[in-house]
């Protein structure tokens, strides 16, 4: 269940330079997990199929005066398990983009493998 909390808490994605002699400036994805909402960059946010946000989703929605709710609804994202949608982060959040990752039904029991597969869609 720890993975569940991490995915719901915050999963940020950034870009750095690849350490390769031929392509030193080629960007590669870097991923970090945090228990605090990032102030910049990109964010992966898990959402259940009932469209409810977790604590960070509610915080982002408040920071953007309902902008996250609007962007979520406008995207048509349904929250089905392992579905993804990238949206432009609403003004006021400091973020660039948000990847919504569908967690499926809130009351449906998921195995660790299920959570790994859901997380794999984000990576």
Content-based structural category: alpha+beta
Give the low-confidence spans: 1-20
Q: In sequence order, what are the helices and strands, one letter per element?
A: HEEEHHEEH
Percent helix among the residues?
A: 25-40%
- How many extended strands? 5
Beta-strand fraction estimate: 25-35%
Write up this protein.
- With 123 residues, this protein is an alpha+beta fold.
- The protein contains 4 helices and 5 strands, in the order H-E-E-E-H-H-E-E-H.
- The protein has a 5-stranded mixed sheet with strand order 2-1-3-5-4, sandwiched between helices.
- Strand 4 (84-88) and strand 5 form a beta hairpin.
What would the keywords be for this entry?
5-stranded mixed β-sheet, 123 residues, 5 strands, alpha+beta
Short characterization:
This protein has 123 residues and is α+β, with helices and mostly antiparallel strands.
Write the layout of secondary structure elements.
Layout: H1 2-9, E1 11-17, E2 27-33, E3 42-48, H2 55-63, H3 67-75, E4 84-88, E5 97-104, H4 112-122
Parallel strand pairs: 3-5
Antiparallel strand pairs: 1-2, 1-3, 4-5
């Amino acid at each position: 269940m720890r993975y569940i909390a991490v995915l719901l808490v915050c999963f940020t994605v950034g870009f750095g330079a690849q350490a390769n002699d031929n392509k030193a400036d080629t960007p590669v994805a870097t991923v970090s997990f945090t228990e605090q909402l990032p102030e910049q960059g990109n964010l992966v946010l898990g959402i259940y199929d009932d469209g409810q946000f977790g604590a960070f989703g509610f915080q982002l929605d408040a920071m953007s005066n309902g902008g996250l709710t609007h962007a979520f609804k406008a995207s048509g994202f349904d929250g089905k398990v392992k579905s993804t949608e990238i949206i432009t982060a609403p003004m006021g959040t400091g973020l660039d983009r948000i990847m919504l990752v569908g967690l499926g039904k809130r009351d449906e029991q998921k195995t660790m493998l299920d959570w790994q597969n859901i997380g794999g869609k984000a990576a």
